[in-house]
Every structure is written in structure tokens, then in C-alpha cells.
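tool=predict chain=A
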Amino acid sequence: MKRNNTFRTLALAALMIIMMTPLMAKTINNSTASYLRLGIGAREIAMGEAGSTISRDVASAYWNPAGLAKIKDVEVGAMYNISMNLDRSHQYAAIAVPFRFGTMAFNWINAGVNDIEGYDDTGTPTGIFDDSQHSFSLSYANRWKKLSFGVTPKFFLSTLDDETETGMGVDIGARYDINQYLEAGLMVRDLYSKTAEDKVPMEASFGLAVYPLIGVTLAADLKWEEETPYVAVGAEYWTSIGKDPEADSKLNVISVKERSTWGEMFSYAQTGVRLGFNDGRLSAGTGIRFRNFQIDYVFRLNNHEIMSDDHIVSMILRF
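tool=predict ok
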């Protein structure tokens, strides 16, 4: 009876969040270091960027460093946006290594614009230059019983033509495994972050992940940035197309519980489909996961006339 009451309450809360989402959609982000809000990892982006609770791989360094505590293997991740127009680029790379004292991860995010035409005050061309933004971070995560926690110090590097600007920042996060059906997460991005001239706005996320059926994940994040709340929601379904003994054996089938061998790399395949909503934008994606290798794709609509829709590919290797 208690479990039924829990699910009724959870279903009602999820319905209210979904109904409120269109009313709380935020506008385009033009703040300092706004490239840090583009998101990384095709899986989380496809699920509406509701990543504070669902991410439990190397991408957790971005979405919630506490998720790194769930990693069992060394993981290497990378992402590239293959569709950005206006000579823009966006990519990231990361590595996470579990130790006895916790998990460490190094993360690099880059966004930029190439071949910008420069002009002086009189309108005379001054040549071509580039704008490149970098974030380098080192995360640490650990867990105590059902509670996971993590922290991510960050270093910013911005180059515009022949000018360079630096900055520092920090993210913190926590996650709690309520039971096998429900997890909660809290993440504060840029708790104290600034460049030489500007402060980076803080963003807070509180999320829930629900596992109602085998292979199904439902997620919702309530986010605040500059006193503007909005909601991100997403859903995912994973299924086995091989004979993986782990597949469909628990409610969240994406995590790897035991160390893997390269001989099993292309065995035990699982496929996933995803759908999400965030900031008035729909996203949808798919992925395929082997024992040691995972590749994901997402298509994300952009509701701004000058921005092209996103086609993003990411991958994870496990050693």
C-alpha cells in the first residue's frame, strides 16, 4: 500500500511538472561563459538536458559530479556537434578514473567561432580572427551509503584575436538513491565562478529520476538561473538485442557493474531511444551500447532563426 501511494504521488508530481513546462521556458542565454550551458553528451541532451540525476558515466563531470561515484571502469568520452552554422563549433572530451578513495575526472569543453571578419572604427577590414572559449575541469566524487557527492573546480580560457582572458569556477552536486525506483539529485553550477571582468551566473538544478519499468527511465529537472525557473523533462527506453546477462536485469540497464574485457566489446548489444523537452525545444535521440563501447546521437530543435538545429554525436569507451 505504501509503494502504491508513493507511485500515485510521484505520477501526480510528474504530470504537474510536464503541464508547467511550456509556461516556464527560458530565453536564449547571452550571459558570461554561456557556452557552458549548451550541454554535453548526446544521451542527456536527448532527454531534455534533465541530467542532474540520470547521468552516471563520464559525462557526470558536467551534469552532476556526484554521478561519477557510480563509475566502475575507466571511461573516456567525447562529443561533437556536426551541424553548427555560422562557422561555430562545439565539442568536448573527458576521462574518468575510479580509485579506492573515489573517482577523478578531467573534462574539456570548447566552443568557438572561426574566420570572423574584423573592421576598425572607419569600416576598414583588419583581417580574419577567431574566437575560442575553453573550460578545463578536474572533478572528484565519492559516496557514503546511498548518498553520492562531488565537486568540480574549473579553469576558463578565452581567446579573441590576440586578447586572452582567464577565469575560475566551481560546481558541486549530490545524489541520493531513495530506492530501486527513485533517485534524487541536486547540482549547483558555477557556485562561485568569474572571469577577469564578469561573474558567471549561478545555475541550480534539482532533479528526480524514476525507473517504473524494466529499461525505462523518466527524468525531470527544475532549474534556476538568475531567478528564472524552468523545467527540463526526458524519457528513455533501453532494450537488449543480444544475450547480455545484465540487460533488462535491473531497472536502470545502462550502468556497467563489473569490469569488462575488450574481447566482449562488440557483444551484448543494447539499443536505446530517448525524447526530451527543454526551453521550448524538443529533442530526440538514440544510442547503442556494447560492453565496452557506447555511441549516442541526438537531434535538437532550435527555436531561434539564426541558429541551425543540432545534430550531436557522442561516444564512451570503457576500459
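The chain is about 10% helix and 50% strand. The two ends are 43 Å apart (CA to CA).
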